[in-house]
Amino acid sequence: MSSALSATVEGLYHEHHSWLTGWLRRRLGCPHSAADLAQDTYLRLLQARETPQLLEPRAFLATVAKRVLCNHFRRQELERAYRKALAQVPEQFAPCEEQKAIIFETLLELDRLLDGLPPLVKRAFLLAQVDGLGQSEIARELGISLATVKRYLSKAALRCYFAL
Amino acid sequence: MNSSFGAEVAEQAVHWLIESQGDDFDARQQHALQRWLEADGEHQRAWAHIQQVNQRLRGVASPVVHATLQAPPSPARRRALKALLLLGVASASGLAVQQHSPVPGLLADYRSPVGQRRRLTLDDGSQLQLNTGSAADVRFDSQQRLLRLVEGELQVEVVNDSRPMLLRSAEGVLRLEPGRFNLRQFSGFSQLAVYSGRASLDGQSLLAGQQADFANAGWQGIAPLQADRGAWVDGMLVAAQMRLADFLDDLGRYRHGRLSCSEQVANLRISGSYPLDDSERILQMLEVALPVSVRRFTRYWVTVERRVG
Fold it and tell me: For residues B282 and B270, is the Cβ–Cβ distance under 8 A?
C-alpha cells in the first residue's frame, strides 16, 4: 500500500467518517451494522491498488459504501437461503456448527466469484464441480450442446479458480 | 489469498481441467496433460490449486449449494447492483488457498485414477497392478529394482532376477523374494500381504500366507492372510460377514465423494462378491440384500440409511 493512499484514506476518515456512518444508518436502520460497514468501507479503500483522484469525496465514499452495503445485503440473503436449505437436510447428516460456518464461508466466496455470470453458466459449473455430473449429462440437463457446456465450464472455472 | 497465477497458465490449467473431465479424455491426452504438468512448476501449482478448490466444493452438500446460490436475487438487490459502479478494489481472492501442497500421485511414473485399475509389465517381466486412486514410481538400474508406492494400493508379482526387488512405502523399504505381494498405504502406516514368496523388513521376514502392518518399528500384528482383500485385481470386492460401515469405507475408495451410512445400519453384516466396475450397481444390490435404502443427495454424496416401512 502506498503512503499516499493511506494518507488519502486517513483524510477521508477524519473528515467524513460520521457523515458516512449516518449515511449508512439511514439505509440500514441499525446503528451497529452502520458502524461496522463504515469500517468495512475504509478497509476496502485501503485495499485499493491506486490512490483515487478525489474531486467529490462524499460521492466517492458513497460509491464504495454502496458496494459494501450490497455485499452485506447479499450476505443476509444467502444466509437466509442457506438456513432454509439446511433445514431440509436430515438431522443425522446435518453439519455441526463449525462446519456450518465453514460451508457458509465457502458459499459466500463461491457466490462472489460466480456473481455476474449468466445463470446457466453458473448452473453448469455447479453441476460439474459440486455434483460431479459428466459433461454430456449437463448438456442433456440444460438442453445445450456439448461445446456450449465446455465453453460455460471454462468461463466459470477461470472465475472461480483464478478470479479472471 | 491471491491466486497468483499468470493469465496464460490459468487458461491452460482450466483447459486441462475441462478436457480431463470430458467424456473422451483418453490415455493420449492423459500423457499430454502429464507433459504439461512436468514442463513447469507453475503448471503444477495451478493444477494443485484447482484440485484443492474442488475438494472444498465437494465437501459441501450439493442441495445446499444449489438452494443457496441459485436463490434468485431479490429485485431490490438487482436494482442496487445496477446502480453501483465497480471499483478496482476487489482483489482476486476467492477460493484461493494459502499454501500449495504438493500433488503426490500426479507426478508419479504410473498412476491409476479413482475408480480405475491399471496393469503393467515391468522391464524385468514382473507384473504390477495399481488399484483405484494409486500411484507408483519404478526405478530400475543395474544394481537394484526399486518400486515405490506413492499412494493407494498395489499388487506385484515379482519374477526372479539377479538384482534385488525393493518395495518402498512411506514407512519403510521391503525386500521382496520372487512371489506375489499386496501393499496398501494407509495414513500413517502400511499393510503388506504375502500371497507367495517372502518379504523382509529390517531383516525380519513375513512369509507366504501372512499379512502385517508396519509403521517404523518392524512388523506389527502379523496375522493369517485375508485372501479376499486382494480380490480387487480381479475387479471384485469380496466381503465375508463384513460390517456395512467397513464395506462402504472400502467401496468408497472406488468412487469420488462421500459414501457413508447412518449409525443404525453401520453394524449390519454383509457377505458376497461384488463387481467393482459398477459401484452404483453395488449400491442397488445393497437395497436388495439388506433392510436399507440408499439416499443420493448428489453423485458425490451418498448415504445408506435404514429402510422405513
Answer: no
Residues B223 and B298 in one domain: no
Together in a domain, A61 and A3: yes
CA dihedral of A118, A123, A129, A133, whole degrees rounded to 10: -140
C-alpha grid cell, residue B49: 490449486
- Cβ contacts of A150 on chain B, cutoff 8 Å: 18, 22
* pLDDT single digits (tens) B128-148: 999 998 999 899 989 999 999
Pairing of strands B165-169, B145-151: parallel
Assigned domain for A102 exists:
no
Q: Are A156 and A124 in contact (CB under 8 A)?
A: yes
Shared domain check, B266 and B189:
no
Q: Could you tell me if B54 lies within 8 Å of chain A, comparing CB atoms?
A: yes
Q: Is B74 on the interface with A (CB under 8 A)?
A: yes
Same domain, A88 and A153: no
**What's the pLDDT tens digit per position in A112-152?**
888 888 989 988 998 888 877 889 989 998 999 999 999 99
Q: Compute the nearest-CA separation of A18 from chain B (Å).
A: 22
Closest CA to B155 of B119, B207, B114: B119
Contact yes or no for A134 and B263 at CB 8 A: no
Mean residue pLDDT of chain B comes to 81
pLDDT at B289: 82
Q: Is B21 on the interface with A (CB under 8 A)?
A: yes
B1 touching A (Cβ < 8 Å): no
Residue B67: inside a domain, yes or no?
A: no
Strands B292-298 and B165-169: unpaired
- Domain range for A49: 1-95
A65: domain CATH number is 1.10.1740
Arithmetic mean of pLDDT, B100-123: 72
| Total domains in the fold of chain B | 3
pLDDT above 70 coverage of chain B, percent: 83
Residues of A within 8 A of B88 (CB-CB) are 48-50
Instruction: Please indicate if any CB of chain A lies within 8 Å of the CB of B96.
Output: yes
